[in-house]
Amino acid sequence: MYSYLTAGREKCYDPRDSTLIFVDREDELDFLCEGFRSRRALMSCGHAVTPMSLTNWCRRLLEQ
Questions:
Q1: How far apart (Å, rounded) are the C-alpha atoms in residues 27 and 41?
Q2: What domain of life does the UniProt record list for this protein's source (predicted)?
Q3: Cα-atom radius of gyration of the chain, to the nearest Å?
Q4: Is 56 helix (H, G, I), strand (E, B) or coil?
Q5: Residue 40 in contact with residue 27, Cβ under 8 Å?
Q6: Residue 15, Cα to own-chain centre: how many angstroms?
Q7: Can you give the pLDDT at residue 8?
Q8: How far is Cα of residue 3 from the mean position of the Cα atoms in its chain?
Q9: Cα–Cα dist 15/1, whole Å
Q10: Cβ-Cβ contacts under 8 Å for 15 (sequence gap 6 or more)
Q11: What is the pTM of this model?
């Protein structure tokens, strides 16, 4: 689904992953306006997300 870059850098989707639909929209889970630069993938719920914002969102939910 996605791969890590060098430690401390942003995750990015594999552009060859045929299971993903890439969109040219704002990252809808980047609530802190961190401005992730990687491509956005369309989730089944309709949200466009980067792998970093999706990871951050999941971590937040787990912490709650």
A1: 9
A2: Eukaryota
A3: 11
A4: helix
A5: yes
A6: 13
A7: 61
A8: 11
A9: 9
A10: 22, 39
A11: 0.73
Q: Give pLDDT tens digits along the chain (64 positions).
A: 544 444 467 888 999 999 999 999 999 888 777 778 889 999 999 999 999 889 888 988 999 9
Give whole-number Cα distances, 24 to 4, 41, 49, 53, 64, in Å. 21, 9, 10, 16, 31
d(CA 3, CA 23): 18
Query: What three-state secondary structure class fits 55?
Result: helix
Residue 41 token pair: 């993938």
Give Cα 33 to chain centroid, integer Å: 13
